[in-house]
Write a structure and sequence with these properties.
- There is one protein chain.
- By secondary structure, this protein is α+β, with helices and mostly antiparallel strands.
- It has 2 helices and 5 strands.
- β4 and β5 form a beta hairpin.
- The longest helix is centred in the middle third of the chain and has 20 residues.
- The protein has a 5-stranded mixed β-sheet.
- The structure holds zinc ion (ZN).
- Zinc ion (ZN) binds next to loops.
């Protein structure tokens, strides 16, 4: 029986998006007196940061490593094994 494994990574696209988001927020702050600057840059920066956090957290199957759409998935789409309810983070089991 497979388990759902919670994964997170600070490397890769998620980190890049968060960094770009923060850059946009900073630029918005620098261009605050132009009014139009923060209006465009702040929502963009917040969106990029949220997208980055979403991209750096995911769930996968402990058997085959297939990325799952969420922790409520019952059967792994990759190896078709039944997934347990609990989530394992870095080998630490919550029972
Ligand atoms: Zn699997």
């Amino acid at each position: 029986m497979a388990e759902i494994t919670g994964k997170s990574s600070v490397a890769g696209i998620g980190c890049l998006l968060i960094f770009l988001g923060l850059v946009c927020l900073m630029l918005g702050l620098l261009t605050i007196f132009s009014i139009i600057g923060p209006l465009i840059l702040w929502p963009l920066g917040i969106w990029l940061s949220i997208a980055g956090i979403g991209a750096s957290l995911w769930y996968e199957c402990s058997e085959c490593g297939t990325r799952l759409s969420g922790k409520r998935v019952k059967v792994c789409p990759g190896c078709h094994s039944e997934l347990r309810r609990w989530v394992t983070f870095y080998g630490w089991k919550r029972r």
